[in-house]
Amino acid sequence: MDIALLRLHQQLVASRRLATPAQIVAHLGGMQGQDLPGVKWSIGLRLPAAVQSDVDRAFDEGKIIRTWPMRGTLHVVAAEDVRWMLSLTSPKNLSGSQKRRDALALDDKTLDRCHQVFTKTLQGGLQKNRDEMYAALEAAGISVDGPRGYHILWNAALHGLICLASMDAKEQNYALLEEWVKPVKVKTRDQALAALAWRYFSSRGPATIKDFIWWSGLSATEARAGFEDIKAKLVAETVGKSTYWMSPDIALPNEKVSAFALPGFDEYILGYQDRSAVLDPQHAEKICPGNNGMFASTIVIDGQVLGTWKRTIKKNVIAISAMPFDNLNKAEMSAFKQAAERYGAFMGFATEFV
Question: Between helices 148-158 and 82-95, what is the axis angle to 10°?
Fold first, then answer.
């Protein structure tokens, strides 16, 4: 079993068989989203042909939403999934933030006041950027100094009050979730656990249960309960001491797998606790120096991470510099350049290599 190539296929990197950003995001369940330009490209590279404005339009039309579900980190999720995902993941994320709230002097009474300020500021379909949200809090006598403002926004989003909605220049505005996203049928907690498990294994298989527990941020007990509900719909294969689970319709793509220019934080890397099937552990430090939580863009060739790359936007040109872990041969470098040129086209620029 070639785990890397199967993952490329199931994650739609090497098999672009869906047509819209919303379909991509729904298939994957959620896509790591703290780097907004990066997650736009994560979506775009999985489409047959897309430009950045296609992804921006999906945000502007409320078809995809950015908020803080899995592990309490920013993700892009499909609009119809945002409520049940937050309902499922927020309790653990909120309870785990108690010490942080205490350190920031954010008790329940203060946070309730913050929520009231946000409701008053946004109600009636209004949207505000982060600075405007902070200004509203300051006007109400609530300090946003240091990390306090960000935590207040995070808390309100986990409670399902606000979300990141339409695009404003390079960032997104905040909106009231109830006004921005149409209501859908409510899932029970058991239904939500099963739904999240299915989204994960059907889009990221082959993957282990430990991978799912880590990615979801749920307790091991709840994650395993969701897995057990969908286990009969999956197939398994054991490699070494690990058992990998996947959708029964999994298959390698017909086309030849070649090179890809993945952004930092892409689910191909971030979707798993154990990344050794696609990344030699000796190079892990090079894509996340000092394990600082900041992931570099990666060169992926035939499923393996073989280096990193950087971009510099100039006037009408994107300059790409490649930093392979080892020397790439002529064919590999040519394939990567084609992948990088596709990124340039997505951004609307010509590409040069430096």
Answer: 130
